[in-house]
């Protein structure tokens, strides 16, 4: 649109006023002629009626011209408003741009984890490794498999010949997309778990000594689609595997319970797994869950060597670690830490409980020694409303195993009671 002189603006407004006056005059004459035709002589009626109609048609044409004029003036008004806003914006611009940066050169998170293997072993939980393509999932998994201890089994449908070189190749199942072999192995794992349950029931922990295993499931969401036993394998080991030293590691590109095949078992997921979040998943957790912008920037600055383990930052440089442990003459047995060397669960730092466990402890303390039941939690707290009762009872048992409280009853009647009145749950989480 060309620039207009103020005189032209006045002229356009005047034209609009004239057009409006013409419209009202034509409509008035049309109505008058039509009304007169109704009461006048028969020989005059056709002329008056035709005149009224013609005036109405002319009025409609002028009305269209009015709309064009209004549109033109509206566009001018919008241009004027835009110019005014631009002028105001320019007037209030700062003299120089100021950017705020956080100095991370010498900053170290207070709760930094430098040895994730030791952390996981102290927790005595399963592992869920979450990361996108290129975040280092394979490197971290291979490192963990060579250091965690116990017999390692790997279910990997995409494994290359050079992957998992330090393991007995019979323990690497599923190469070349052999999902049938993975399904059969997972079915056998479930049988083994039941055998260990019986052995421990008859002879205690000594009866299952030396049967420790670490089971790794690569890209587990794919396995849930291809292997019938995979969902049951995950749920059974998540709930019971810890007690019988049958630990699992599941790898995925999403950190939700649903994506891992644990629909309806959200509580089990967060209570029984250490969540290792790599790459953007760690950054997002720091920003959205922990509300810690400085931590998010610290993670980004460290690249692949910095990530999150549960709610704690971790720094571990694996850039020089490769799959050549055999070349270095180091076996997985030599790198492994015996389960007998691990601290007992009661020594786990109590300030690292998740939000579900802390809520259970809060509720149990309010009962002042009475037994807390899953039904009470589901009815009294939104946090537990959508959880299954069996999920909540699993968390009861987990807290009892940590020495924080004790379970009362069995099966569907299992409840929880605080035995240490001095314990105060953390409010940091």
Word description of this protein:
With 429 residues, the chain is an alpha/beta fold. It has three domains: 6-91; 116-341, 3-Layer(aba) Sandwich (Rossmann fold); 351-418, Winged helix-like DNA-binding domain superfamily/Winged helix DNA-binding domain (Arc Repressor Mutant, subunit A). The chain has 15 helices and eleven strands. It has helices at residues 6-39, 45-91, 116-123, 137-147, 179-203, 220-226, 230-240, 266-272, 279-289, 293-301, 332-335, 355-366, 374-380, 382-385, 389-401, and strands spanning 126-130, 151-155, 172-173, 213-217, 246-252, 273-277, 306-309, 312-315, 372-373, 405-408, 415-418. The strands form two sheets. Strands 3-2-4-5-1-6-7-8 form an eight-stranded mixed sheet, with helices on both faces. A three-stranded antiparallel sheet has the order 9-11-10. β10 (405-408) and β11 (415-418) form a beta hairpin. α9 runs antiparallel to α10 (293-301). The model is unreliable at 95-100, 323-351 and 423-429 (pLDDT under 50).
Summarize the biggest pleated sheet: 8 strands, mixed
Strand-residue proportion: 5-15%
Q: Which structural class do you get from the secondary structure elements?
A: alpha/beta
- What is the CA-based Rg, rounded? 37 Å
| General form | elongated
Summed up, the domain count is 3
Mean pLDDT: 78
- Would you give the CATH topology of the largest domain? Rossmann fold
The strand count comes to: 11
The largest sheet has its strands arranged as 3-2-4-5-1-6-7-8
Q: How far from one another are the termini? A: 59 Å
The CATH first-level class of the largest domain comes to Alpha Beta
Percent helix, as a range, is 40-55%
Give start-end ranges of low-pLDDT stretches. 95-100, 323-351, 423-429
Q: What is the assigned CATH homologous superfamily of the largest domain?
A: P-loop containing nucleotide triphosphate hydrolases
């Amino acid at each position: 649109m060309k620039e207009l002189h103020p005189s032209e603006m006045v002229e356009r407004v005047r034209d609009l006023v004239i057009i409006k006056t013409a419209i009202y005059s034509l409509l008035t004459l049309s109505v008058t002629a039509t009304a007169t035709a109704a009461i006048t002589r028969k020989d005059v009626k056709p002329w008056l009626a035709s005149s009224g109609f013609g005036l109405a048609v002319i009025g409609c044409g002028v009305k269209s011209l009015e709309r064009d004029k209004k549109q033109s003036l509206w566009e001018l008004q919008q241009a004027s408003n835009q110019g005014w806003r631009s002028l105001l914006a320019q007037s209030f611009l700062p003299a120089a741009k100021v950017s705020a940066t956080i100095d991370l050169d010498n900053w170290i998170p207070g709760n930094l984890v430098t040895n994730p293997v030791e952390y996981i072993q102290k927790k005595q939980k399963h592992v869920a490794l979450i990361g996108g393509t290129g975040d280092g999932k394979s490197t971290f998994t291979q490192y963990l498999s060579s250091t965690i201890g116990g017999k390692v089994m790997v279910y990997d449908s995409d494994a290359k010949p050079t992957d998992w070189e330090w393991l007995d190749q019979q323990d690497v199942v599923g190469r070349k997309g052999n999902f049938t072999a993975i399904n059969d192995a997972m079915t056998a794992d479930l049988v083994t778990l039941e055998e260990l349950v019986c052995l421990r029931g008859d002879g205690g922990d000594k009866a299952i000594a030396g049967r420790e295993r670490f089971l790794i499931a690569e890209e587990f969401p794919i396995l849930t689609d291809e292997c019938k036993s995979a969902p049951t394998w995950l749920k059974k080991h998540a709930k019971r595997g810890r007690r019988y030293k049958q630990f699992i590691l599941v790898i995925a590109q999403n950190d939700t319970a649903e994506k891992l095949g644990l629909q309806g078992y959200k509580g089990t997921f967060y209570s029984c797994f250490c969540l290792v979040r790599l790459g953007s998943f760690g950054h997002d957790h720091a920003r959205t869950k922990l509300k810690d912008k400085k931590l998010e920037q610290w993670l980004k600055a460290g690249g692949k060597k910095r990530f999150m383990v549960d709610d704690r930052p971790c720094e571990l440089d694996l850039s020089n670690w490769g799959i050549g442990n055999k070349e270095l003459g180091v076996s997985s047995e030599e790198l492994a830490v015996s389960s007998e060397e691990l601290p007992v669960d009661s020594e786990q730092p109590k300030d690292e409980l998740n939000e579900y466990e802390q809520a259970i402890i809060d509720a149990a303390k309010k009962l002042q020694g009475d037994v807390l039941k899953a039904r009470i939690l589901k009815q009294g707290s939104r946090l537990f409303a959508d959880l299954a009762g069996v999920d909540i009872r699993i968390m009861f048992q987990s807290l009892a195993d940590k020495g924080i409280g004790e379970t009362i009853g069995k099966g569907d009647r299992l409840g929880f009671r605080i035995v240490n009145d001095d314990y105060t749950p953390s409010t940091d989480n």
